[in-house]
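Hey L., structure's done. Input below.
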Amino acid sequence: MFDKISISSKTEKILTKSLDESISVDDANHLMNIKGAELYPLLATADFLRNEIVGDKVTFINNCNINFTNICMVRCGFCAFGRDADDADAYILNDEQILAKAERAVQNGAREFTLMGGVLPDADIEYYTHLLTLLKDSYPDVAIHGFSPTMIKDACLVSGIDIAEGFEILKDAGLDTLPGTAAEILTDRSREIICPEKVSVSEWIDIVKTAQEVGIPGSATIMYGHVETLEERVEHLDIIRQIQQDTHGFTEFIPMTFMHEFSPIFLEGQSNLGATGTQDLKLYAVSRLMLRDLIPNIQVSWVKMGFRFAQVVLTAGANDLGGTLGGDELSEASGAPDGVEASIETLSRMVKDLGRTPMERNSKYTEFYPLE
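Output:
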């Protein structure tokens, strides 16, 4: 397969072996550091495995982000979205505003609401239950992908209940899937720099495992390109892989490249300028080689990469384009390159140009809807 390309014997051995089995942490670290022409066989191998595992369809969901507040007591160094309650531009959406945004999305064919916001200081489980019931009572057939492990942990503390009970309550109120947010990078060294007030690595693992045991599957994510090392990226991938081997509760894996321009840690000179394009490609490809069909769906965040580069990343092992979003104030505050809303037609055009088949999906990747 690689006889026409200048490639080291070690890289060739790893890539050849990866066609039949998941690569090791050591092998992943080697691939993260390859240079020059060795990148191309890595991408080709990841794309080959993607086709073997999920075929040529590229999926996405018609969804709408409902960011119900930007007030947040957990002020992360990478986030340009959060505000203090007394800031002039702080907000909390009321019920009428939430329903108005939901109605616009449903009129546009939305199959999912992504319910997210800052961590409010006094929010309890009843507050989040109210938001779920508000939407489910009006739109029972629209899935809700909502909240974060940090929000759930704090709400359970305020309500005086354990995490499992909290998830049971939220599930009964209509929570369908849990976003992989608050994972950021799953190493305590980096978290101490970028998000010391968020859940620790062990807490994040316990919370998402508890959600999955209760019957709430969800996303796995990584945010990379800030202060972490290449080895820490691989360590994060291995943690996700180990969780999935135990629970099989992740529906998708979403690498999210760090958007540095307006982040506090960048403005204070503590972070990198974000990942380079080749680092983005290597992370996606190595993710496919590590996760294979254990997490078959690897998502490209077009809102963070822009439409053009997101299309390129679909050739590096990815098979999903996320959603239409209907707005994303978190990414918008960080400087999303191509805006925060996409049409079905735009995403379909990107896919068809690659010679692959665009297809809408539901939140759990259990139903697919062909497009004309």
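The chain is about 45% helix and 10% strand. The first strand starts at residue 57 and ends at 61.

-- N.
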